[in-house]
Records
---
Amino acid sequence: MRYQGDFVLKPMLKLAGAAALLSYSMAGMAADVKSKLESQLGLEVSAVADSPIEGLQQVTTNKGLFYVSDNGQYFLQARIFDIDNGMQNVTEQSLATMRLNGIKQFEGSAIEFNAKNEKHVITVFTDITCGYCRKMHKEIDQLNALGISVHYLAFPRAGLNSKVYDEMVSVWCARDPKAALTAAKQDKSVKAASCDNKVAEQFEFGQSIGVNGTPNIILEDGTLIPGYQPAGVLAQALDG
C-alpha cells in the first residue's frame, strides 16, 4: 500500500538531487574558469560569481573586475548597464562593494588625518612623489575643518621594486607616520625605517579596484574619483 506521502516525498528528493547536481556543476565551472585565468593569463582570482548576463561569469582578480564566458573562452573588460533600471551601472555597483569591503582590511594601517567634528571619511590612494597628491595634502587642514577625515593608503606608482616604494615603507614605519608623510610630500628626507607594514597590500588592492594613478579618492558610498579635487568641491560632493 502506498501512502500519500510517497507522492510528495519522491518528487522532492528528485528536486533536491537536481539542485545539488546544478550546484556541483556551477562550482566546477567556476573552478575551471579560475584555473584557466590563473594559468594562462597570470591573474590571481579571488572570486567567481554569476553576472547579470546569462552565459557570463563575473571574476574578481588582483588586476580588476572582468567577465568571462561560462566555458572560459572569452574574456571581457567591460561595463554592464541595466537599461530597464535607468541605465544603472551594474559593474560600478559591484566595484563599489569591492572597494568598501577592501578598505575594511586596512583599518589600523592607513595614515589618518581625522577631522575634529567628523562628518565624512574619504580614503585616498597616494604617492609621495605625485604633484597633485602634494597639492591635495596642502589642503588637509581645510578638509579637516570641513569635517572631512582623510585616510591615506599607499600607492607607489612606480611599483613594488622601486625607490618610492622603499620611501613609502619608511613613511608608514616612521615613529610619527603623519609627520613623515607631510615631510615627504614637502620634499624633505625621511629616515629609512622598516617594520611589518601593508604598503604592498594597499598597492595591490588599489590595482584590483581599478586605481592606476594618484590621487584616487574613494567616497563613503564606494564611488571612486580619479584625480585631485579641491577641498570645497569634495565637500559639496559629500554633502550632496
Note: The mean pLDDT is 88.
---
Amino acid sequence: MRKEKVDTFQLLALIILFELGTAMIVGVGLQARQAAWLTVIISMVGGALLYLLYHYLYNQFPTLSFIEYLPEILGKYMGWTLGLVYVIYFIYLSARVLRDFGDLLTNAYYNYTPVFVVNCIFIFTVFYLLSKGIEVLARVGEIMFGIYMLLFLIVKILMFSSGIVKFDLLFPILPNGWTPVLKSVFPSGVTFPFGELIAFLMILPFYNQQKKAKKIGLLAILISGILLSFSIGLDTAVIGPDSMQRSTFPTLEAISKIQIGFLQHLDVFFLFKLIIANFFKLAIFYYAATFGAAKLYKLPNDKSLLFPIGIIILFSSLIIAGNFAEHIKIGLDFVPLYIHLPIQIGIPFLLVTIVFIRKKIN
C-alpha cells in the first residue's frame, strides 16, 4: 500500500488543472475556426473513452503504477523497455510544457529575459514542491484550484461587462462543413489535452477511493472540456476566428481588449491562471517521469532522481525547437500523429486486449 494518499477533491482538482494547462496557451481545434469550441466538445468525448481504457488497466492493478505493471503484462524485458519509453515520453512532455510557458512569458512580458532564466525558475519551483511528496502536491493543487476558478470567473465576467463579446463572429458555425472539425478532433484534439491523462496512471495508485476513480476522472474531463470549450468560444467571439488562427497567444489577445473605465491591461489575470495550471501540468509529468524511472531501476526513494531529471527537462525544453513557431508546428503536426497516437492509444489498447484475453482464458 502507498503511504501517501490523494483524496477525491484533490484528484478532481489536479486533473482539471492538468487538462487546462497548455491548452489555454495554444488553444485547441483552432483550424476549425468558428467551430473550435465544438471541436473541444467532440474531443472531450474521445478523451472520456480513452480514460475508460486507462481506468480498465488501473482497475486490474490498483496498487501498482503503470510502469510497475507493464512487466506483469508483457514480461520482464519487454515491459521494462516499454516502461523506459514512457519515462522518456513523460520527460519530453514536461519539456514541451516548460517551453510553452517560457516562450509565453518571454514573448509577451519579459522581452529582455532569456527563456533559460524563466524556465530555470519554473522548473526548480516545481522541483521544490515535488520534493515534499505527491500528497503535498495534491493539497496545494486543492487550494490553487479554487484560486484558478475565481480568476477564470473574473476574466469571463469582465469580458461580458466590457461589451467586446460579439457572438455574430461565431456564425456560421460550420462554413466548410464537418470536415475541418473532424480533422481537428483526431488525432490532435483527442490526444491534446485529453489523451495526456495517461500520466495519471502513475498517480491513481495513490488515490484513496479506488471505486470512485472512474466517476471522478470522467467528471473532471467533463468539467475541463466545458471550461475549455467555453473559453475558446468566448475568445473567438472577441477577436474573431482569423485572429484566433494567426495569434501566437489568442486568449492573451482577447483578454488584452478588456477596457472598463480605469480597468485596463487585465492580462495579469491570464498570467496568474496560466502559472497555476501549467505549474501542475508540469508537476504531474515531472512526477510521472521521476516515479517511473525510480521503479524501473528499483530505487527505494524516487526523490533522488528529482534533481537529475529536472535538469534533463530544463535543457530539453531549450533544444526541442529552434523558436516558438517551430515548437508549435512540431506540436501540431508531428507530435499528435507520431508520438501521442501510439503511446496514448495504440499501446494502451494493446495492453487492454492482452489483459482481457488472459482473463477470459483463465
Note: The domain at 8-361 is CATH 1.10.4160.10 (Hydantoin permease).
